[in-house]
Fold:
Amino acid sequence: MQSIIPVKLPQNAYEIHIATDGLKEIGKKAKSLNIGKKVLVISNPEIFDYYGQTVIDSFTQEGFSVNYHLIPAGESYKTLDSISKIYDTALNLRLERNSTMVALGGGVIGDMTGFAASTWLRGINFIQIPTSLLAMVDASVGGKTGVNHPQGKNLIGAFYQPKLVLIDPLVLKTLPEREFRAGMAEVIKYGVIWDKELFNRLESANNLNSMDVLSADLLSYILERSCLAKAEVVRRDEREGGVRAILNYGHTVGHGVESLTNYNTFVHGEAVAIGMAVAGKIAVEAGLWTEDELIRQNDLIKKAGLPLDIPATVDREDLLDSLQLDKKVKAGKVRFILPTEIGKVIIRDDIQTDLLRNCFRAS
Structure:
């Protein structure tokens, strides 16, 4: 599998390279970017044990001076304290403005590495090597970086584009099944909001809940179509002033569910799946799309082994309150991304509280 998808931005254009066994080529690809010789690889211990040496060797063979910094795995470490520790390492290594931070990991590592790179010396180079399906199809592309605040997800952050995104599908072989399923939530999202052909292709698959049941062709199709969708939306709206907000389909309620369960009950994709199911119900109640389309969406979510319902332990009034902390709130109004047909969505900020309460009930 070899393909290059350009992310065409006016100031910060870059490429997404999808390359089987591509980890061994990262040094060569980085060298072509004409960056400085100092590289800091940021990862978590488990991912680093699998792939860290391969990445370091590839950089070293091309004449880079490479060090690494490890952060424990998990959303609970996506904090300013973790960023401060990255700064300490950057200072000790005397990273310079032409130095590079490399994110080797999933979305949490990518978000933190990008934020650290965007703020160290007011911005140094940044390369993404996503190792989870969710990061490959979503988090690594588009330049959103940041950390969580105790009261809300990703409230602290910056838009900061990488110099390169390298996706090696082979690393998915070591991805836990739960994390693979979580990534499928974002893939389904692209089908609902943007790409009807992708949605139809997913519907034709017998199962979506494991890497083992996907053919190489389907995996290739999923990666390419998802990255193409994300790249095109980001090209049209780099800093989420308009159309890019549609990428948050399922995230409004999803982020609230994550926050109210202290980030230790659901992984991100599971919460997004719940959010999509709720958003689909809202769309039906608001007369925007049909019950049949909602069923088709939810069948895909179930086919990927993902949850549909807000857990009983989450207080519905607390969830309503949490929506006000969402980044997409504008002039005090919560904005929802709602489908009008498979492949198309609109943004609405006039959804009534009683309708929301009704849609928060279990299916």
Remarks:
- The chain has two domains: 2-174, 188-359.
- Residues 188-359 form a domain with the Dehydroquinate synthase-like, alpha domain fold (CATH 1.20.1090.10).
- The first strand starts at residue 2 and ends at 7.
